[in-house]
UniProtKB/TrEMBL annotation:
InterPro entries: Spc2/SPCS2. Residues 213-226 have a biased composition (Low complexity). This is Signal peptidase complex subunit 2. Component of the signal peptidase complex (SPC) which catalyzes the cleavage of N-terminal signal sequences from nascent proteins as they are translocated into the lumen of the endoplasmic reticulum. Enhances the enzymatic activity of SPC and facilitates the interactions between different components of the translocation site. It comes from the Eukaryota. It is a multi-pass membrane protein. The chain crosses the membrane at residues 40-58, 70-88. Keywords: Endoplasmic reticulum, Membrane, Transmembrane, Transmembrane helix. The lineage of its organism: Eukaryota, Fungi, Dikarya, Ascomycota, Pezizomycotina. It is found in: Endoplasmic reticulum membrane.
Length: 240
């Protein structure tokens, strides 16, 4: 993965870099990427361009009067193709950034989005099983970009990949080392918590703090609102 830095204040840069990392990661796991959505969009776009170029050439070679009916038809076709491209991009392709098939046969479709002024990566994943009569499973994620970008704007692949491997079983199955690292980290934290109980000195400090708070509360109703060091100072002033 490239270590090129981006601006952490640009949502477009954060999203585009994250979007580009998805196919790089999944294809490295031997997912087979489908380019059908992109191919259809390119075909429609190039078709509209071809009509425009043809219209220009025959107008330049033959003149407007002899080709005006062809030009009128070309305008209609060009408009129709651009309308089809808009509908395809809006209703079919949408926010989809990746479609691929896992080594185990599931089809994974990933769409991403961001909200204005909110540095959160919203991901909608649709997993379709190869088995017949099985409804697609949808998984939604919302994670801050700070999980995989450092303060300098460098993309860090490991936490990004861990998010997807943990959330999507088809990805976790293809990349179990990411799941293993998460499990190991959780077990390490749990073991540390169990192996480091309060020391006697810490317990003594907690007991003294509790006794001081109790003394402050028994004085009057005003001191009951005070906590911590403020409550203890009030107790000393009453003794004086």
């Amino acid at each position: 993965m490239s270590q090129e830095k981006i601006s952490v204040y640009s949502l477009a840069d954060l999203k585009n870099t994250s979007d580009d990392a998805i196919p790089n990661y999944l294809n490295s796991l031997k997912f087979t990427q489908s380019h059908r959505l992109t191919d259809v969009r390119l075909a429609i776009g190039y078709g509209a361009l071809a009509v425009a170029v043809a219209c220009f050439v025959w107008d330049w070679k033959l003149g407007f009067d002899s080709t005006k009916y062809y030009s009128a038809a070309a305008v209609v076709v060009y408009t129709a193709l651009n309308g089809a491209l808009w509908l395809w991009s809006r209703n079919v392709e949408g926010a989809t950034v990746y479609v691929g098939t896992s080594p185990s046969g599931e089809t994974v479709s990933i769409a991403t989005s961001v909200e204005k002024y909110t540095p959160v990566y919203n991901v909608e994943i649709t997993v379709t099983s190869p088995k017949a009569n099985t409804a697609p499973k949808k998984i939604t994620l919302s994670r801050p970009f700070s999980e995989w970008f450092d303060s300098a704007g460098t993309f860090i692949a490991t936490p990004f990949q861990t998010v997807f491997a943990t959330a999507v079983p088809a990805i976790g199955q293809a990349d179990p080392k990411r799941l293993a690292s998460v499990s190991a980290a959780a077990q390490s934290v749990s073991a540390d918590a169990l192996e480091t109980p309060y020391s006697p000195a810490m317990l003594d400090m907690l007991a003294k703090a509790s006794a001081a708070d109790a003394g402050g509360v028994s004085g009057d109703s005003d001191s009951a609102a005070a906590t911590g060091p403020v409550g203890k100072k009030g107790g000393k002033r009453r003794k004086a």
